Amino acid sequence: MSSVLLSAVFSVHLSALAQEVPKLRQGMTYSEARNLLIEEGWQAVFNMEQLNNPNRSGVIDRFIEKGYTEVVDCSGTGLGLCLFQFQNATGQSLFVTTANNDSEGESTVFGWRLEAGVADSASWGRQITWQRGHCSD
Fold first, then answer.
1. According to the model, what pLDDT value does residue 19 have?
2. 89 DSSP β-pair partners
3. Pairwise CA distance, residues 136 & 104, whole Å
4. What is the three-class DSSP state of 115?
5. What percent of the chain has pLDDT over 90?
6. What stretches of 18-67 show up as alpha helix (H) in DSSP?
7. Residue 10 and residue 62: Cα distance in Å, rounded?
8. What 8-state DSSP symbol labels residue 29?
9. Are 23 and 36 in contact (CB under 8 A)?
10. Interval 27-69: pLDDT, tens
11. Helix or strand or coil: residue 128?
12. How far apart are CA 120 and CA 70, in angstroms?
């Protein structure tokens, strides 16, 4: 009896994790991806830490000026990737990574990952589900 109950609880928990991520694609513009996520019920997670950071980079400043206050951070070297956080009604967090974040063009989706039970960007240790961005139609 208890094993049946445990199986039922476990199955419900796994089905909650299986929520589909909207049809993100590598290379789509971040503004397009952001609009798609918001239309699908994901909420941009307001990052007060970056908003109050007097030493934030110019790239982060540009995102905040655009109203993209969900920016978690940007790399200052290499590909110059930036990370953005969204959350749905069940508490899942979706992190979107962008490339081409210079001032010359529009940032594009580089990849994404889905995490369950993460309330904010400081809770990295509880990753449950990992999804890499991939090209799809």
1. 56
2. none
3. 26
4. strand
5. 58
6. 30-39, 48-51, 58-65
7. 43
8. B
9. yes
10. 999 999 999 999 999 999 999 999 899 999 899 999 999 999 9
11. coil
12. 11
Distance CA 81, CA 101 (A): 7
Phi, psi of 42 (to 5 degrees): -80, 140
pLDDT for the residue numbered 11: 35
Instruction: Report how far residue 103's alpha carbon sits from residue 90's, in angstroms, rounded to the nearest whole number.
Output: 35
Q: Of 121, 72, 78, which is closest to residue 102 (Cα–Cα)?
A: 78
What gap in Å lies between CA 73 and CA 84, rounded to an integer? 7
**Torsion angle of alpha carbons 23, 29, 32, 37, nearest 10°?**
50
Give the H/E segment covering residue 45: none
Residue with tokens 């476990």, as numbered in its chain: 10
In angstroms, the CA 65 to CA 86 distance is 18
- Measure Cα distances from 72 to 12, 18, 20, 130 in Å: 31, 24, 23, 18
94 by Cβ neighbours in 10 Å (0-12 / 13-18 / 19+) ranks as buried
The tokens for 17 are 């994790």
Gap between the Cα atoms of 133 and 48, Å rounded: 27
